[in-house]
Fold each of these.
Amino acid sequence: MATIKNLATTPLAFNRKAQTAASNSALGPLQTLVTGNTWVGDTGFNIMVVPNPKSQFLVMVSQLFETHQFDEVPAPVPNRSQNNGTAQVGAVKYSQIVAENVSKNILHEETGMWLNQTLGTLPVDPTGNGLQAITGQPETDYVVTNPVVRSGTIPHGNTIQATGVWSDYNISSPGPSPIDLSPYIALQNFPTENGALSFLPFFVDGSDPSGLQADYRAQIAVSLDNIGQTTLTVDDFINPISLLNKYTANVSEIVSMAVTTANNLGGVLNVPFARGVIGPQDFICTFMIETVQNNPTFAPTQDENPTFFQLQYLQSIPLLFPKAYNGKDVVFPHWNINTLIAI
């Protein structure tokens, strides 16, 4: 008769008992997402291009009402190797719902997980089951160079695995004046020009995009007028950092999580229609989880907290449209941006 191994002798491998969020050290930078649990924001924007037979393409700018829900997977998830130990992965489930702010029509839904990969904590495993911390290469390098992962599913028929890094920044002198988020948003992952964000369409063949970009700018202006945003400029939607900066007063700490599929350590998987018609090229996202001083000019009352959490993000999925402009293939910007508060 075969011997059945007692799973109780493999600690942490199958343990999913409930823990408080603070006791799951593997969460790392994801901890505050769980502490906030539900986040809501209505100051963001989405820019999207769709095919249009009359004008070759149509630019649509939408104001956003958005909710994010985060729930902890209550114990580290073990990723085992044959001879080099076991990584422990902190995991947070998320649900993102993005709606147009006035009509509340849904524009985007996404579910998935944020992951934080760690080397584990056990120096040795007396059971011999390989649960000690990861040592040696290349396994250690896999975990420490891109520890943060966003794994998501989008109902257009897309799935993403984006990897990256996180950093914790303390703002030395928080105050009522807004700060510039450029140093914290991982500019190197996004399209830039002269050190600033620059979301403009371009031809795949590398030919001069001047006419294309002029039409794109003109359509942004029309779309802003259509939604009554006459105080914003076209340039605010070429470099949208100002749409975030205006909400950074009294920020005292920023935990930045920057992930991308363009580093060839993840990818975007699309159904055939999406591949052939709109061709999502990459998924690039930076989450900035911020601690904000609650109006430090006065002492909070018993009904107020001295600080609160704020989430600001920029998310980009450039789209390849075949023969979209004068018969040429074009990569168009598609991004959304928002500021959300933990409630």
Amino acid sequence: MFKDLYKNGSANATGARAAGILPAEISAADESSSRKNRGQDAPDTGNRGQDARDTFHTGEDGVNLRGWFIIYLGYLLVLTVLALGLMGLANESNATWVQKVWLLPLYLFYLSLCCTFFPAPTAWIVLLLASPMVGLIAPDTITNILGTTQTTSQILAAVLTILIVAATGALGTMMANLNEYHIFTFLLRYGRVKRIRHARFYDRVAQWFSSSPFSLLVMISFIPIPVDVVRWLAITHRYPRGRYAAAYFLGRLVRYSLLAATATVLHIGWLGIALIQGGLVLILLIHVVRRLLSRRVADTIPVDKLAPETEAIS
């Protein structure tokens, strides 16, 4: 009896679609549902669970999510153990370099978390590690090792401090963005953000991105204002992870070098760090407020009055 009712319902739906009453999306959904129901009466929860597990394995995009998350968590665990070990060694040792070097794993750990999903500020910790308050590389250490003059030792200590702080920070940010790459890939597979590929702006921005993707990624990783759409476009465009990571490393290497040089050369303290970080946060807030206001203005305009390129995306 129920099968007869179902067949009649399917026939009525088919007639309605033929008459143009039901939209095509519903038509496709009905046909898919009909095929599934004809094959089996009850849902296969086992297959659904298997699909969920398969989400973490290598997919059509060639990304092994489970492998990456294991590597990433292991990497954070190693940094934690290393920081704790060096901290304990610093408490027992009188060596100056040991008392300072334990900060590097903590610095790397923090920056390895900072991304869209953990939007913590980064400039302050770069400035702090490069500032004379920490004194990561002491001129006296250079003098004792190389036997150089005091002036030469100060210059070498400053250069080494800038290079170490910038390179370590760039490595941390690269790891954070690689983790974001995999999280976003997971969301794409799960269906949460698949609609971005169907947004009106996607094709136009994709053409712009494909013209010079590496240079564009380097540029947006350098500027202090986050440009998430380009980063997400690179992920949805399946841009190679190696080049994606290299672009972010190079961009942040230059950015962190400038910040570290500012802290080292100007001998800034807590006040200078707070002013620089506060200024960057203010720039970001202005950028966010402008975007929110532009969206609000766009929402107040009737849809039929909007140009195709400015229509709101639902």
